[in-house]
Amino acid sequence: MEGARGRQRLTVSGRVDDVINTGGVKVSAARVQQVLEALPGVQAAFVGGARDDEWGQRVCAAVTTARGHAPFDQAAAREAIRAQLGPAAVPKQWLVLESLPLLPNGKTDRQSLLTRFTT
C-alpha cells in the first residue's frame, strides 16, 4: 500500500509466535486452534510450539471442554486437524484442562502453558 510521497507502508497482522516450524513445515497455531474450537464440546483451546530437539518445535495443544459434554475425543481432534490442515499440524502433545490459565488482563497465559509442555 502506498503512503504519502510514494513510500510503501507495511502492515503486520497476527502474531509472529503464531507460526510453528515443525520439521521444516510452517503450521499456523491460530488455524489449529480454530479447528479444535469448532469441535463439539470444546470450549476453548490453546495451540503453541514447544522446543523439540528432533523437529525444532512440536505442535502442542491444551483444550477445555464444556460442562455436560462427553470427554474430549483426542482421536477425533487429530483426524479433524489432519483432514483440514495436514499431518504436520496435528499436535504431538495434549493437555485437557478444566480451564486455561489466564493473565491478569484475561488473556491466555501462553508462557505458563508452553512451560507445561516442556516439562
What pattern of helices and strands is seen along the backbone?
A: EEHEEHEH
Q: Helix amount, in percent?
A: 25-40%
CATH topology: GMP Synthetase, Chain A, domain 3
The quaternary organization reads as single chain
The overall number of domains is: 1
Alpha-beta classification? alpha+beta
CATH class assignment: Alpha Beta
**Largest sheet, strands/sense/barrel:** 3 strands, mixed
Instruction: Work out the radius of gyration.
Output: 16 Å
Output the CATH homologous superfamily. ANL, C-terminal domain
* CATH architecture grouping: 2-Layer Sandwich
Instruction: Count every helix, treating DSSP H or I runs of 4 or more residues as helices.
Output: 3
Strand order of the largest sheet: 3-4-5
**How many beta-strand elements?**
5
Spans of at least 5 consecutive residues whose pLDDT stays below 50 are none
- Bulk shape: globular
Strand content: 25-35%
The N- to C-terminal Cα distance equals: 44 Å
Q: How would you state the average pLDDT, rounded? A: 89
